[in-house]
Amino acid sequence: MLRADRHLSLASEADTAALAQALALAWTQHPTARLLITLEGDLGAGKTTFARAFLRALGVHGRIKSPSFSLVEQYTLGEPGLQLKGTLQTTAYHIDLFRFSDPQEWEDSGLRDIVGGPGLSLVEWPQHAHGLLPRADLALQLQVRGEGRDCVIRAGSEAGLTLLHALPERLNSG
How far, in Å, CA of 39 to CA of 139, rounded? Predict the structure, then answer.
């Protein structure tokens, strides 16, 4: 029977990056036109670390900036396995909703079209959209535990379930 979630213990930043890389690889092997991954956790829990490692694994070069002040950073993915529906590239969006405090800010931001459209969306602080985000394909909850992190990954769609089950068993289950 397929599980809808997975619990991991991430002992280091390198473990967080390894998880991101494994999920990115799984997406290249099971591509979808749209993928929404949400990242919840307190400041310093590893959300941006995960997003950067995920984007790097998909071939993004150069500086990967935190979108804390810009709200959204856009990247072009050249990964051949993600050239969907005849396109030559797929777009990735790294979004940070930390500064949102009112549901109207989500409505006014114009991000609904980005998150609901084709491409990859990595959204930090999804709870600041006040329940207005589409359902995430994968929702990661990161929690600081000593020097490491606890991570719960929940699949919210068939695509998310496929990626969750494509993760190697060698990743440390908690």
Answer: 6
